[in-house]
Amino acid sequence: MAFTLGVHESVDLIFPPTVLCDALDPDEDADSAGADAADSADRSEVRVVGSAAELEACDALVTFAYEDAFLSAGLSWIHSIQAGVDRFPFDELESRGIRLTNSTGIHGDAVGETVLGYMLSFARRLHHHRDRGREREWSPPEWDEPFTLDGESLCVVGLGTLGRGIAARADACGMDVVGVRRTPTPVVHVREVYTPGAIETAVAGARFVAVATPLTEETRGLIGADVLAAMPDSGYLLNVSRGGVVDEAALLEELETDRLAGAALDVFETEPLPEDSPFWDREDVIVTPHAAAATRDYYRRIADVVRENRRRAIAGEPLVNRVI
Questions:
Q1: Most buried residue, 53, 105, 131, 169, by CB count within 10 Å?
Q2: Could you list the active site residues?
Q3: Which ranges constitute the DSSP H helices of the chain?
Q4: What is the spatial distance between Cα 24 and Cα 21, in angstroms, rounded to a whole number?
Q5: What predicted TM-score, i.e. pTM, was given to this entire model?
Q6: 108-287 is classed in which CATH architecture?
Q7: Domain spans, the chain
């Protein structure tokens, strides 16, 4: 029986759909893996899809966006190229027997390096120098502004793949790392783990607070006015999770009153970030366009997960990274 895997045109927001199709080409699998893969290749194909008619010709779909048309297309499985799946309607998918998988587990190094870059920019004032450089302005920082990461403190909120990637790199720089997760079990590179109920205690001594938790009903608005107020005046908030985890109005108020030293924000409640957002104009804020996980190898990492799940789907085996 043929198995058709669609790559939705919305992945073009991250990488060209054709490069993922090429990476998932069953003929290449057959060439590299022999007869067993050849048998599988005879029963599967991959194509770029967009219209409702094209969707209905597919058994499974790899996508960035969610569309209501997915529900009626007869799909058995949808794969999100992101780790976050808050855009997908779980109840509706489950009622139609559509399995949902995600790309968790592949972003730890990229996101970890991005957060390290944020911290280095703030510590070494690199964002200041870049901004002044555009104006051809030679503007050394005040003598007491720059610092080094060695010995500074970091609280990582969310210790999944992303959080652990952040913690490992911070630890390598000599930072004192604590974290927040639902279960306070030990985590490598993290000195102490707090539960969400003790988050204000966890952030109280942290120069940097990196938010890396998924957006769920429990985490929506988790970083609100009380948590921000618990951070030290010298603190920086770094958000690489989802915009809904942070109360943006409360954060802006803390920044406008100089209650916090700054923020690096990769995600927002509304994306793209509106042109009139006050975050754009603040010198103490680094804005990046939901790109913390970006890497030229992103599509290859997606392909590894999807290729394995395609094999499992054809063989009738449980899928990896299954959400529902």
A1: 169
A2: 242, 271, 290
A3: 17-23, 26-33, 35-42, 52-56, 90-95, 108-124, 126-134, 161-172, 199-203, 225-230, 248-256, 298-315
A4: 5
A5: 0.92
A6: 3-Layer(aba) Sandwich (3.40)
A7: 3-106+295-315, 108-287
